[in-house]
Amino acid sequence: TIEKQRLLQKAIQTHLEYMMAASAGKGVDRHLLGLRSMMQTPEEQKSAHIFQDPSYIQSMYFRLSSSNMSPGDNFWGGFGPVVPEGYGINYAIGKEGIKFSISSLRTCKETDSKAFRETILGALRDMKKTLA
User: DSSP label at 50?
Assistant: First the structure.
């Protein structure tokens, strides 16, 4: 349990560092989205080769799309996956708990929202035991 606590603390710290770097302008995805959104004509879009590069396309392929949709206790809603074999998850953190809205395409045999929900619940229960 002590090792799990140490690893959880390390994961939290790493996440905070990434979050702070992104908010300080050190992330690139929002900048690239801004540039892409500024292109208005098909000619401009065609000439921007970076957005046709396979590595860019792969970096924008999110099998897991999630977002905090607080205000916790008073929010209900959701959004869908952004790729065919992905999940869309929003969550709202309230005073008494966390709400999740998990979605995936029924036509995709690789995804199962109910099974993913059970995986998340299992992870949360494990974290509760680790932190108790």
Answer: G
pLDDT tens by residue, 66-119: 887 777 667 677 778 999 999 999 888 888 888 888 999 999 999 999 999 999
How many residues are given for the chain?
Answer: 132
- Tokens encoding 85: 């074999």
Alpha-carbon distance of 104 to 65, in angstroms, equals 11
Q: What is the pLDDT of residues 4-42, one digit of tens each?
A: 899 999 999 999 998 888 777 676 677 788 888 898 888
Q: Is the pTM of this model over 0.85?
A: no
Are the C-beta atoms of residues 82 and 104 closer than 8 Å to each other? Answer: no
Residue closest to 72 by CA, chosen among 99, 38, 49: 99
Q: Where are the beta strands (DSSP E) in 3-132?
A: 64-68, 87-93, 98-104
Q: What does the alpha-carbon distance between residue 101 and residue 79 come to, in Å, rounded to a whole number?
A: 8
Secondary structure letter of residue 84 according to DSSP: T
Query: Quick one: angle between helices 113-131 and 2-23, nearest 10?
Result: 110
Cβ neighbours for 33, distance < 8 A, ≥ 6 positions apart: none
